[in-house]
Design goal:
Elements lengths: L1 H6 L1 H20 L5 H26 L7 H16 L4 H29 L3 H19 L9 H5 L4 E6 L5 E5 H19 L1 H11 L1 H6 L4 H27 L10 H10 L12 H19 L4 H28 L1
Antiparallel strand pairs: 1-2
Helix pairs in contact: 2-13, 3-8, 3-11, 3-12, 3-13, 4-5, 4-6, 4-11, 5-6, 5-11, 8-9, 9-11, 12-13, 12-14
Length: 324
């Protein structure tokens, strides 16, 4: 038990913080219940996929500033292809958009590897490139979404029966998040590829000397980030019913959630559970500020301050760790 606590103390602390925030939310809004949790899950879903994309890249020792733009490309691609199409056709659109995300991530990775330009510079440039691509596909918000795709996010699912006969429910959005992330992350974490990603994040030179194909692993890590970004774009289209060609506020939020979730900015350490819990914490903070009738401008300032403090703290921790 003590070993488990030592290995997972950060995630346990984040879980406790989330629980306290939920209690505080219930105090200030007694009617907050299943519908509130569903709303929270739906609002956090897109941010969670953006955070998952950023997590993989940061663990590999890099950073991707183009995640929000890749999500925009995936969103408008799905919206344009689903607009006026049959429900059956949408079954083909989803895997196609996921392949588009993989391709975008692979392009980012190859440019970084073959040009040897720092990833922050390459992905900053690709932010504008993918944003331009999204605007070429759809110049203004529009398009459509298949009904069955929307149905994956809306409502709750019964998961059992309580002793008094009442049905226990969890939001569909939360189930979708767990299934999608688990289907990709669990095989990754236990695979040789996953170990290689952690290895190049810790030390690319040591990984190379150990026989790890550093360049190929880095490209694959960015490809995986593109896959998660495409999932986020699909969710964005499903939740709004239209495509969004302008990148949303997912970049800084994803970095903040990654750092708050315990992932070292220098790479090589961390997991996915902590950053996902951090996403819900940050979204719940916004909800609480709204329930307290805090001015929206002040809410934006508070969110920005939290993100800046978290990112700066993560940078300081990474610097201190590198000096040891």
């Amino acid at each position: 038990m003590l070993k488990f606590l030592r290995n997972h103390y950060w995630n346990i602390g984040l879980g406790a913080m989330l629980a306290l925030l939920l209690i505080f939310t219930k105090i200030i809004q007694p009617n907050y219940g299943i519908s509130g949790l569903e709303s929270l899950s739906r609002s956090a879903l897109t941010f969670a996929f953006a955070t998952a994309a950023q997590t993989v890249v940061v663990i590999a020792g890099g950073i991707d500033l183009s995640i929000a733009s890749m999500m925009a490309v995936a969103s408008v691609t799905a919206a344009v292809m689903m607009d006026g199409a049959s429900e059956q056709y949408a079954l083909l659109v989803v895997p196609f958009v996921l392949l588009v995300g993989l391709a975008m991530g692979a392009i980012n990775g190859m440019l970084i590897v073959f040009s040897r330009v720092p990833d922050i510079v390459v992905t900053l440039a690709m932010l504008f490139v993918w944003e331009g691509v999204a605007l070429m596909i759809l110049k203004a918000p529009g398009g459509g979404s298949a009904e069955w795709v929307k149905g994956l996010l809306i409502g709750q699912v019964a998961i059992g029966w309580l002793p008094d006969g009442l049905t226990q429910w969890i939001p569909k959005a939360l189930i979708l998040l767990i299934v999608c992330l688990g289907a990709v992350w669990l095989p990754f974490r236990r695979s040789r590829f996953g170990l290689s990603v952690y290895a190049i994040g810790s030390s690319s030179l040591a990984a190379f000397r150990s026989g790890v194909a550093v360049n190929r692993t880095r490209i694959a890590a960015y490809s995986m980030a593109g896959l998660f970004a495409a999932m986020g774009g699909l969710v964005l289209t499903a939740s709004t019913g239209i495509g969004a060609p302008i990148p949303g506020p997912y970049l800084l939020a994803s970095v903040a959630a990654v750092v708050l979730g315990g992932v070292t900015l220098g790479g090589g350490r961390g997991g996915l559970l902590g950053p996902i819990i951090a996403v819900f914490i940050l979204r719940l903070v916004r909800t609480d500020l709204a329930l307290l009738s805090v001015d929206p401008n002040v809410t934006t300032i508070v969110e920005g301050t939290i993100m800046v403090v978290v990112v700066m703290a993560g940078g300081l921790i990474a610097v201190r760790a590198s000096r040891k």
